[in-house]
Amino acid sequence: MVGIIAGCTSDALVLATVLASQDPFTMPSGLLIKHPAELAERLQLSLKSRAAYDAGHYSEPLMLRNLFVDWLTEFASSVAAVRSRLARQAAVRRNRRLEMNMKMEYLRVSRDFARGHSVVAKRMVHVAMMCVDLATRLKRLLRPDSAAATSLSFFVDLLQNPTIHPPVATGASPSILGSTPSGAETTASASSSAPATRFVHSTALTYSSSAAAAAVQERFSSDVLLLKSLLVAAFAPTFI
């Protein structure tokens, strides 16, 4: 709620999710790794990954937040590439609607992500599922046309919407899934109140990997002081 009031719904969603989840970083143990050299190497990799995401702020919540934002960016980029490939298949196989298995996508992306960031893939999958659940529950409490609800809908679509539509028959491959004719788009955009028009990329459902990654990144604040203030307010006594 504090994040919604402060206008950083996306950051609040991720912070609440990671703080309620198990630490996704690897914790090498001498009970499982018998060779001292291998244990030291894995410990070093885990500590380096933690330090990189902490970025000198000495804040575990911000470290976990940065990690999951990085995962979301990679997930969006990877899923957009899969959507593009399957959309071409849907265009060839007419009258056939294709859908992705989103949980399998979680696991696939998490496995690739885990190799270079010293995290446990299954824990990243669990964080993603918790994020969807929290966004879905919180969205029910908000006005559908509010900016906060729009931000939450973005993450629900990104992490849960499996739908794939074939490209339109004009020959130009659209960057946005489920696009409407230009006239209808103009009418809809003119008549709707657009709390999310400040975003360059308004949807998570795209065929472009770069656009998908940019759509995720632009929804998060780079103001560290704001994020730290949000954490302080969240753990402070409730005065409302």
UniProtKB/TrEMBL annotation:
**Region ranges (Disordered):** 170-191
Name of protein: Helicase associated domain (Ha2) protein
Where do Low complexity bias regions lie? 178-191
State the superkingdom.
Answer: Eukaryota
